[in-house]
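TICKET: design request
STATUS: open
ATTACHED STRUCTURE:
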């Protein structure tokens, strides 16, 4: 009787799981038509992939469909890799959470004396949004180093650092430059050697125009009167620290699973990263 009850329970779990998977599939079914930019979906439970499927097109002009190995620009999902890079340097005792901006960039204006690495990581720095400082007439893409120069021209922050929360792309552009300054490596190289290669994220890259190539990539589109118009790059797309990584769902699964091990970050550092900040 116990064996029968166990079998029935397992069957009920499988039926429930299949129903949930069907719900996931239904959510993305609108991307399945023949004229739509696409996406990839991967669902895992307890480290096991239970659903993996792609929808729509990576390249509408060439009618190239999305696959699970198709690389997408991660945009702000990049920030977690930038944060992890900083934590690796802290783990190596090359940096501290209370290190000030002016300790790293000696030429930084005085307002940087109050801004710490921790403020940059948890969006409490109050730094001015660099996007708001870009002239409307600008045509050349902004890079991380340009963001630093913009901050040199400022004299204050939105608020006293550490007293408020304000999402900051500026902070993560500066964090990428801090990784370069402390490690002596280009940010893209540091990411590759310290995160992507150890985790065998072989398709993932911090893209630099003219330096690296994103293989098998999807392109961005926006709605247009005639259907879809390619809108793949913007004036800020070349900034690496806040949004320049390309990856796919299979590589991101490897990244997710690394958080349950000490392969990249120790328990102590991970716990610090997951601790809520108090204003």
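STATUS: resolved
RESOLUTION: sequence designed for all positions
ATTACHED SEQUENCE:
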């Amino acid at each position: 009787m116990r064996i029968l009850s166990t079998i029935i329970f397992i069957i009920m779990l499988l039926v429930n799981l299949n129903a949930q998977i069907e719900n996931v599939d239904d959510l993305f079914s609108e991307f399945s038509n023949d004229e739509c930019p696409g996406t990839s979906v991967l669902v895992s439970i307890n480290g096991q992939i239970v659903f993996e499927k792609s929808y729509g097109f990576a390249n509408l002009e060439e009618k190239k469909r999305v696959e699970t190995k198709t690389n997408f620009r991660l945009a702000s999902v990049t920030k977690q890799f930038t944060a992890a890079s900083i934590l690796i340097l802290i783990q190596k005792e090359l940096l501290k959470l209370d290190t000030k901006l002016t300790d790293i960039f000696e030429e930084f204006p005085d307002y940087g004396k109050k801004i710490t690495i921790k403020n940059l990581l948890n969006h409490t720095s109050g730094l001015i949004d660099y996007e708001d400082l870009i002239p409307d007439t600008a045509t050349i893409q902004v890079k991380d180093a340009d963001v630093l120069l913009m901050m040199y021209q400022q004299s204050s922050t939105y608020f006293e650092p550490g007293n408020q929360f304000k999402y900051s792309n500026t902070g993560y552009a500066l964090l990428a430059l801090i990784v370069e300054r402390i490690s002596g490596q280009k940010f893209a190289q540091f990411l590759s050697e310290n995160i992507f290669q150890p985790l065998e994220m072989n398709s993932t890259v911090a893209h630099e125009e003219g330096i690296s190539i994103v293989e098998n990539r999807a392109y961005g589109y926006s709605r247009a009167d005639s259907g879809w118009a390619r809108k793949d790059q913007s004036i800020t797309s070349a900034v690496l620290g806040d949004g320049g990584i390309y990856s796919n769902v299979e590589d991101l699964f490897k990244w997710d699973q690394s958080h349950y091990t000490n392969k990249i970050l120790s328990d102590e550092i991970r716990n610090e990263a997951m601790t809520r900040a108090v204003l």
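CLOSING REMARK: The chain has two domains: 2-68, 73-274. The first strand starts at residue 39 and ends at 45.
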